[in-house]
């Protein structure tokens, strides 16, 4: 493998994170959001890993994502969060009863009732994104509701008043609906406490090692990155590095030019010093601007040579804070140039 970067995905860490979130979910079943190709890490691999760990409820956004997963084992349930639009019906019916829509509009409910099949339903309790409102509940008459959902807008801010308000509205709206199960909490929602757990929780980001700090402290990192040193350079004081000549060497330095860039998910907004690589156990800080295919590191303290492979840190929380880009966007933005390696 020449200079292609590698993205190593630690399946044991994903399974451990799921078990931790499942334990924190108390008596509720614990599902897994694997939309956007498992937050960029491979929906099929995450599905297989968590199925073995004991997860039975999975979530994607699009029917194409459901179809791409292929046949599901007996006992698996896959819910499609974007519901059943007119153009989705053929795909939805072809996928069989293990895959259900999460219906979110009256038109979708009316359309799906004609199939005679059960479905999940999303209620809007203050997010104002997808979901039936309080005035729409009557349309559910005659539909077999498997899981009745709502989604929290501010679960990552535990003290935000909308958390309690959404809980109260969800209870009130769910009361007349004969649903087999209720579900409200995403990863951060699990941390709000037992009142938010109901019968099923829907973690996503936590499985992949991200989320607000309280949860994250106990979660394991899932992603490891490695790339090749293409060139080593010696800099003299006053030499500049990269586009815009932003970095100016204050002293003699050794610079490692590494085959990884913003096309591989390293946002240019990461300031020098906010990203690091490790070579020989020595941490080397990013210097200069990140370009599309290359990054430059201060390797003065490491013994490195052209052609060496180096571990480049992918610190979800740190990079999110330093770049102003959410942990979610960083994960799904890792790009398609990596050789993926599951272990
Ligand atoms: C994406 C998503 C989740 C998972 O959210 P995380 O914050 O990643 O845990 C849960 N529920 C719904 C409806 C979602 O769209």
Detailed description of the structure:
The chain has 343 residues and is α/β, with parallel strands linked by helices. It is 25% helix and 24% strand. It contains eleven helices and 19 strands. The protein has helices spanning 11-24, 35-39, 43-53, 63-69, 89-94, 106-113, 161-174, 187-190, 213-216, 316-323, 327-332, and strands at 6-9, 29-30, 32-33, 57-60, 77-80, 99-103, 119-123, 145-150, 181-183, 200-201, 223-235, 240-241, 247-248, 253-258, 276-279, 282-287, 295-298, 309-312, 339-342. The strands form four sheets. The chain has a seven-stranded parallel beta sheet. The protein has a six-stranded antiparallel β-barrel with strand order 11-14-17-16-15-18. A two-stranded parallel sheet has the order 2-10. α1 crosses α3 (43-53). The protein is elongated, with a radius of gyration of 23 Å. Residues 33, 35, 81, 151, 186-188, 202-206 line the site of pyridoxal-5'-phosphate.
Give unreliable regions as ranges.
Answer: none
Distinct ligands, ions and cofactors found in the model: pyridoxal-5'-phosphate
Mean pLDDT: 95
Net shape: elongated
* Relative helix content: 25-40%
Strand order of the largest sheet: 3-4-5-6-7-8-9
Separation, N- and C-terminal Cα atoms: 18 Å
- How many distinct beta strands? 19
What structural class do you assign from the helix and strand content? alpha/beta
Helix and strand pattern: EHEEHHEHEHEHEEHEHEHEEEEEEEEHHE
């Amino acid at each position: 493998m020449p200079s292609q970067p590698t993205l190593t995905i630690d399946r044991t860490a994903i399974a451990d994170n799921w078990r931790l979130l499942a334990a924190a979910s108390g008596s509720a079943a614990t599902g897994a959001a694997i939309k956007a190709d498992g937050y960029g890490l491979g929906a099929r691999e995450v599905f297989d890993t968590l199925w073995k760990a004991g997860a039975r409820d999975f979530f994607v956004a699009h029917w194409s994502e459901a179809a791409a997963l292929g046949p599901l084992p007996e006992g698996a349930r896959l819910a499609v969060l974007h519901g059943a639009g007119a153009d989705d019906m053929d795909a939805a019916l072809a996928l069989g009863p293990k895959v259900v829509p999460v219906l979110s509009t009256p038109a979708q409910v009316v359309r799906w009732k004609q199939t005679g099949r059960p479905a999940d339903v999303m209620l809007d309790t203050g997010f104002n994104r997808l979901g039936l409102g309080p005035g729409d509940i009557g349309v559910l008459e005659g539909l077999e509701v498997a899981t009745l959902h709502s989604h929290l807008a501010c679960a990552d801010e535990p003290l935000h008043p909308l958390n309690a308000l959404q809980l109260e509205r969800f209870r009130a709206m769910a009361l007349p609906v004969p649903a087999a199960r209720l579900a409200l909490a995403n990863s951060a929602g699990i941390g709000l406490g037992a009142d938010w757990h109901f019968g099923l929780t829907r973690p996503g980001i936590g499985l992949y090692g991200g989320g607000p700090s309280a949860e994250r402290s106990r979660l394991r990192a899932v992603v490891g990155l490695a790339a090749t040193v293409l060139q080593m350079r010696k800099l003299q004081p006053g030499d500049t590095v990269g586009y815009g000549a932003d970095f100016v060497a204050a002293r003699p330095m050794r610079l490692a030019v590494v085959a990884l860039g913003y096309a591989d998910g390293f946002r240019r907004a990461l300031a020098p010093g906010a990203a690091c690589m490790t070579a020989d156990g020595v941490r080397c800080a990013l210097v200069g601007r990140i370009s599309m295919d290359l990054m430059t590191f201060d390797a003065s303290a490491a013994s490195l040579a052209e052609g060496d492979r180096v571990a480049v840190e992918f610190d979800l929380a740190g990079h999110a804070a330093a770049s102003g880009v959410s942990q979610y966007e960083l994960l799904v933005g890792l790009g398609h140039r990596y050789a993926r390696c599951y272990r």
